[in-house]
Design goal:
The protein has about 725 residues and is an alpha+beta fold. Helix 5 (about 125-140) crosses helix 7 (about 155-170). The longest helix has 18 residues, at about 675-690. It starts with a helix and ends in a 44-residue tail after the last helix. About 45% of the residues are buried.
């Protein structure tokens, strides 16, 4: 009776005109069946398995995992035999005996479905389940997903058609391997390896009987039998699997009883963090992802690249150095608090390679109070890029480079009073001239007749404004652009305005540290690099931008800049308190208008860093008014006193263990100039000295000359007449 009902149900389901010899499906081979099935697909076109990708630090440690499905495929040889037996016992115990269709299971399901009037029982073989899961994975639209999961005979027949091709195309072991790596094991774990790691912190090859039975039980209903959702129901389902295994004599009744007594232990449950938000380095991670999304080798569109990043099983190596990152983070912890109203950020770059070794900031990642999703270290090139701050006098380094490149020596002197009047002064640019007649700049430090070295040591504004007027703005602006400086807000070039040398453009710690790294590398500019390599799931390299360096300015010019900025770190210099150890150090302070941001950027031959403390909340206000750093009011914000300590402690830690290196000495000509320049300078010095002497008042026209009175001979008085000597009294006189 059962056979009759089953055949009649099957015949009814095939009433559309398909003629499928039932005996062929029931056999162990489907090779003879395919030829008698009308219009069947030759083979199932599957999509690659979605595999989680990993972002690694330079030492191979994990920064983040990216995935849409948490999956790590393994070969069948890496799956424990007991796991294979458990899944076969509960899902398809005749898997190795039947072909694409298990006749007994299918007929049993169809009898029940006929009596219920709907599809209530699947009866699918493991091969059919694999087909269904593959079609779901392949679906690109909601309609395709609905079609792949529709509770209809049509869908079951479609699965069966494809199953024939799968059984012809792959061996049973290959099908089982594909199935175990594809199936959902609940709680976001896809594939047996990810499930073993997730629930038990073990590998698929080391699963125990009780663990394997639990995982096999989850497959039927990944949500309902998920132990993190319903532990009792999951255990009951596991015990069903164990009893079925004993019934099939896969395990002994004693083994089943012992496993049934075992509690499901979720104490080792480990969710694999997904995305940069779960990383220990979320800001660095997001910036690295933003650079990956720019790489056309990962896909034609940003959407394609994002999908590939989360499904391609990529291994992404970055330049982040955990030791240097820790040193920078320790500096942030020492000098700031998350509740500060001001924010601080530090980036550290390796000269000569552009490798971004560290990127930290004081406000933690998140959307809660005192948290942010903005990365204060980088440009506004993606959603999380803040877009920088005006960088103040750190821009003077490029004016120094421009002057040296034009042949002005370090000992070039300019009278630099405070204030100076710029009315009528035109500054040449790359495209013409500019002026600002209402601008009356002042010095907050030393004024006077100064050399370039002295002006840098004291950060004398009026010196560098006059220097940039003499060199023209095109020279420093061109050098800045060659060293990677641009407007971090607009991503366009920095404006060539009168106050260019005082840092009115928006720049970032990453941009500035990398530009200063170019001076340390004797003029060799390297594009900043956060992603150093990308490997696909097979270990093949995917094209990605690598180290990209060029000689941007002459070596002797860079050597000169290093010497001038080293003067800043000498006793009496604005960075003198930040010097440490035996290192050759160079740097520059920076403070913007109204103290809304303060900077210190500096470097050794090995590493360069830029630190900023700023107000990052509109409306931006002066840091000395109602702003805190390290929990205390900022009473006197300066580049050296506020941002400098952050730079110093970060660099001290970062440089530990690195070889001691020295800056190359500048040439004598770079210091003193040519003989002609030295002569001209000496003449200018004389004029300056003469100009300091008091001047006689001018004589009005028609005024008779003033005749001085005749000089009379001196009158010599006669010698004084001395009185006769007085004898001392014989008795003492009274005291008054």
């Amino acid at each position: 009776m059962v056979k009759f009902l089953g055949v009649s149900v099957l015949a009814g389901a095939l009433a559309a005109g398909l003629v499928i010899p039932f005996a062929g499906f029931a056999g162990s081979s489907t090779s003879g069946v395919a030829g008698s099935v009308q219009d069947l697909p030759v083979e199932l076109q599957t999509v690659p398995l979605q595999i989680r990708s990993r972002i690694l630090a330079s030492d191979g440690s994990l920064i983040a995992t990216l995935y849409e499905q948490n999956r790590m495929p393994v070969p069948l040889s890496q799956v424990s035999p007991i796991m294979r037996k458990a899944i076969i016992a509960i899902e398809d115990d005749r898997f190795y005996q039947h072909g694409a269709l298990d006749a007994k299971g299918t007929l049993r399901a169809m009898v029940r479905n006929q009596s219920e009037g709907a599809v209530q029982q699947g009866g699918s073989s493991i091969t059919q389940q694999f087909v269904k899961l593959s079609l779901i994975a392949k679906a690109k639209t909601e309609a395709e997903r609905e079609q792949a999961t529709a509770v209809t005979y049509e869908r079951k027949l479609t699965e069966l058609r494809y199953a024939i091709g799968v059984e012809d195309q792959y061996s049973k072991d290959e099908i089982l391997e594909k199935y175990l790596n594809l199936v959902n094991f609940g709680d976001g774990a896809y594939g047996v390896q990810a499930a073993a790691q997730h629930y038990f912190r073990t590998s698929a090859k080391n699963l125990t009987l009780a663990q394997a039975a639990m995982l096999a039980g989850v497959v039927k209903n990944p949500t309902g039998y998920d132990p993190t959702n319903d532990l009792k129901r999951s255990r009951e389902r596991r015990d069903v699997v164990l009893r079925r295994m004993a019934e099939l004599q896969v395990i002994t009744p004693k083994q089943a009883a012992a496993a049934i007594k075992t509690q499901i232990d979720l104490s080792k449950l480990r969710k694999v963090p997904n995305g940069c938000a779960s990383s220990n380095y979320p800001f660095y991670c997001e910036y690295a992802v933003s650079k990956l999304l720019e790489n056309p080798a990962l896909g034609a569109t940003v959407k394609d690249r994002d999908h590939y990043l989360k499904t391609g099983g990529l291994t992404i190596r970055t330049s982040l150095d955990p030791r240097i990152q820790a040193a920078a983070q320790a500096s942030i912890r020492s000098h700031t608090k998350t509740t500060d109203t001001a924010v601080a950020a530090i980036t550290i770059v390796q000269p000569g390679s552009g490798l971004v070794k560290a990127m930290v900031q004081s406000r933690p990642y998140g959307i809660g109070k005192n948290q942010t999703s903005y990365n204060y270290n980088v440009e506004k090139s993606y959603d999380g890029g803040y877009g920088g701050f005006q960088n103040g006098s750190t821009m003077k380094a490029f004016t120094i480079a421009g002057a040296l490149e034009k042949g002005l020596p370090m000992n070039y002197k300019i009278n630099s009073p405070s204030p100076i009047d710029l009315s009528g002064k035109k500054f040449s640019t790359c495209k013409g001239t500019t002026e600002d007649p209402d601008y009356t700049p002042k010095n907050s430090t030393k004024s006077g007749y100064l050399t370039m070295l002295e002006a840098a040591r004291n950060s004398t504004n009026t010196y560098f404004l006059q220097l940039s007027q003499r060199t023209g703005l095109c020279a420093p602006a061109t050098i800045a652009a060659k060293l990677g400086m641009y407007n971090a807000q607009t991503l366009g070039p920095l404006d060539q305005v009168v106050s260019f040398t005082l840092g009115v453009g928006y720049t970032t710690p990453l941009m500035l540290s990398n530009a200063y790294a170019s001076f340390a590398a004797r003029g060799k500019y390297c594009a900043p690099l956060v992603v150093t390599s990308v490997l696909d799931k097979a270990g093949r390299a995917i094209k990605t931008p690598g180290v990209n360096c060029k000689q941007a300015i002459r070596q002797d010019v860079a050597d000169g800049v290093n010497r001038v900025l080293s003067a800043v770190m000498e006793p009496g210099g604005t960075g003198g308190r930040l010097n440490f150890g035996r290192w050759d150090l160079a740097g520059k302070t920076g403070t913007i208008q109204d103290n809304r941001a303060v900077w210190f950027a500096g470097y050794a031959p090995n590493l360069a860093a830029a630190a900023v403390v700023a107000d990052a909340t509109l409306p931006y206000t002066n840091l000395m008014y109602r702003h805190t750093l390290d929990g205390e009011d900022i009473s006197d914000p300066t580049g050296s006193g506020t941002a400098g300590p952050l730079w110093k402690s970060a660099m001290e830690g970062a440089l530990k263990g690195l070889p001691l290196r020295r800056f190359a000495a500048p040439t004598a000509r770079m210091v003193n100039g040519t003989p002609a320049q030295q002569k001209a300078q000496a003449e200018q010095d004389k004029k300056y000295e003469l100009s300091k002497k008091p001047k006689k008042p001018p004589v009005k026209p028609g005024t008779p000359p003033v005749v001085p009175p005749p000089v009379m001979p001196p009158v010599i008085p006669p010698p004084p007449v001395m009185p006769p000597p007085v004898k001392p009294p014989t008795k003492p006189t009274a005291q008054r």
